[in-house]
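BUG-330 | component: ligand-complex export | severity: low

The export step for zinc ion jobs runs without errors, but we want the raw record kept on the ticket for reference. Input record follows.
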Amino acid sequence: MRVFIPTQHIHHHPQKDYSDGLPPFDHLEIPSRVDAILKGIQAASTVDLVKVDRLALEAVYNLHDKDYVDFLLAISETLEPEQEYMPSIFRNNLSKSPLPFQGGMYCQEIGTPIGAKSITAALNAAAVAEEAAKYIIKSGQDAFALCRPPGHHAAPRRYGGYCFFNNAYIAAKVLAQQGRCAVLDIDYHLGDGSLEFADTNIPYFSLHAEPWQNYPYLDANVRLPTVHSELMTFSPGMRGRFYLSLLETLIAKLNKGHFNYLVVSVGFDTLGTDAIQDQSLLLEPKDYAFIAQLLAKIEAKILLVLEGGYDISNLFDCAKYFMSGFRTSC
Ligand SMILES: [Zn+2]
């Protein structure tokens, strides 16, 4: 398995998450996640490792709104090395306000601080997804993109949920130029950003926790779209075999699309011990082998893109079991 990793993510190390109010808790989206998952993959399969150093500025501008990307770059320029940015006021249009206030029209919540190198890291993660997609087209093999920061909560002009740029849709746009492509999201959370990118060209399939009672805590008046997407919700307290049966149903629907390529947003935050869950799901590390076995039966070439997963003491095992169930070559 060829695995693509970012070289610049270590410079993105958010300190505190204020989502639960004061006092803030230590941020869960930490650099050692990538190491733990990579070691787990290596324990179960032979890895051909590719380190990606570049930034995917062009791909990011092609996917996201220009003023949004411009803002993220501009605010980064103002930050000292250990400083973090968080908007203080949230309105739909702050374009007439001074730069430090403008973030409030792009930012979803107060859990996603921007450090001086966060946006560089996010551009590097986008490049990891892009390079992995190009490799799949060239080789006809599957690949794993260990993107960090993650991306599935990033919308055309919104950041949050630890995400800045939508790595999965950046990769999917590359793949869709060569054949039919879809995105399948198996992170604990609904990828509300990915959902906004879903269209006829690249539909979105997701199995997730109920999104009004879990992040992204949707507006009570919001109704989820039913076109260009297939969304399924799991129940609180659900164990592995019931979860797997739901995933099997979702994959059966996806297979009807006869896709050539599939981007899978992989989140290990479905693990029962992950602190980020509001409604506990009871998956164990060994369940990831069965999840991967279901994915391995899909005919499309698969690009695995890392999203969440924050139980650092179990990420090695989750990744190891996952790779033990996935196909190692095509
Ligand atoms: Zn998640």
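Assignee comment: Attached the raw record above. The pocket of zinc ion is lined by residues 187-189, 267, 269, 307-308 (CB under 6 Å).
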